[in-house]
Amino acid sequence: MKINYDFYKGQDLYSDGDIENEIIEYAKKHKNVEEVFENDIRWPVFYHLTPIRKNILNWYPFKEDSEVLEIGAGMGAITGALCEKCKSVTCVELSKNRASSIAVRNEDKENLEIIVGNLNDIDFKERKFDYITLIGVFEYAALYTNTNNPYIDFLNNIKKLLKPDGKLLIAIENKFGMKYFLGAPEDHTNIKYDGIVGYENKDKVQTFGKKELENILKECGLGNMKFYYPLPDYKLPSLIFSDEHMPTVQTIENYRPYYYEGTEVEFNEIKAYKEVIKNNMFSFFANSFFIEASQEEIETKVNLENAKLISISKTSEKFYNKDYSKKDKKVQIYSMQKEINELKNKIEAMENSKSWKLTKILRNIREKF
């Protein structure tokens, strides 16, 4: 493993704050992250450290002796999985702090190079890759590509780094994901229904629906594509579906949704998906996409029914076992009124009791002194 700082400009442009340092310390001290989750199940900690993150790629059949470019490697959640499957991995990360996390977690990987800096500034010296991954990255293209068509131009620049038969692997939220109709805020803007109505601010971060992504990829010359549907999303996938392997009303029962802290949902997501599945609309409402795109025809074969995914551990259960249901306001008001009336009745009964009347003289004397 080696780190390249040649293109680092001395400023970390993306960060979760001081908690990243805590996560790095956890990574140093705990090879078994389940020990961490026994006491700390905060979202950033769980998100960056849980092995469930690897499920977005550990089922995918990378070809032998492949060279991979991982763009936006974060804190190294899936870098190790890539190193185990591929001949060489070059990962690009904007943040020096996050790059140090990747190094700590993958210090034994001899086939890994970490480049710190903005992809647009890096000179790969005519090098081409078999695979390029954009896991939770494409939605940020407008922030780091200052052009009139940042998403198109970003992909066109990336395509130059692909071998003729190379594949681009994209994981991104679906702006029409079912969880957003339930009332979960948009993952990046934290605004309810923001993606569904087309985003208030398109100059920053935005995701897309399936048809939009197909059109963008076709415009960039990556018209051969295959869609997969990770649930609950690409961040913490525990189920993977595809157009050839769609969920049924039975298999969707195995789905374990999660939402950000403080989220209240309007209805049951699993029940809603069952109705969607009955009407063959799952691909439109899937929460996330994993897309395989190429200039050439895609012939990837994978048996998702037998895909070996990392399961939710016992220590991780408490992360999922939270009540996100929206309480009926009328029921809440009725319950509060009932409690108030009961309290009034208790006070009235106490004031009318003999003991209260007998001690009234003493209470009056105490008030005077």
Structural write-up:
With 369 residues, the protein is an alpha/beta fold. It has two domains: 2-320, Rossmann fold; 329-368. Helices cover 33% and strands 15% of the residues. It contains 15 helices and nine strands. It has helices at 19-29, 34-37, 43-49, 79-85, 96-105, 141-144, 150-159, 178-182, 210-219, 269-278, 282-285, 317-320, 329-351, 354-358, 360-368, and strands at residues 2-4, 67-71, 88-93, 112-116, 129-135, 162-173, 224-231, 239-242, 288-294. Strands 1-4-3-2-5-6-9-7-8 form a nine-stranded mixed β-sheet, with helices on both faces. Strand 3, helix 5 and strand 4 form a beta-alpha-beta unit. Helix 1 (19-29) crosses helix 3. It is globular and about 95 Å long. The relative contact order is 0.12. The mean pLDDT is 90.
Spell out the key features of this protein.
single chain; 369 residues; alpha/beta; Rossmann fold; nine-stranded mixed sheet; 15 helices; 9 strands
Overall pLDDT:
90
How would you describe the shape? globular
Rg result: 26 Å
- SSE order, one letter for each helix or strand: EHHHEHEHEEHHEHHEEHHEHHHH
Q: Largest beta sheet, briefly?
A: 9 strands, mixed
**How many structural domains in the coordinates?**
2
Number of strands: 9
The percent range for helix content is 25-40%
**CATH homologous superfamily descriptor of the largest domain:** Vaccinia Virus protein VP39
Helical stretch tally: 15
| CATH top-level class of the largest domain | Alpha Beta
Which assembly state applies to the chains in this document?
single chain
Q: What class, by secondary structure content?
A: alpha/beta
How far apart, in Å, are the first and last alpha carbons? 79 Å
CATH topology of the largest domain: Rossmann fold
**Assigned CATH architecture of the largest domain:** 3-Layer(aba) Sandwich
Portion in beta strands: 15-25%
Q: What are the low-pLDDT stretches, counting only 5+ consecutive residues below 50?
A: none
Spatially, the strands of the biggest sheet line up as 1-4-3-2-5-6-9-7-8
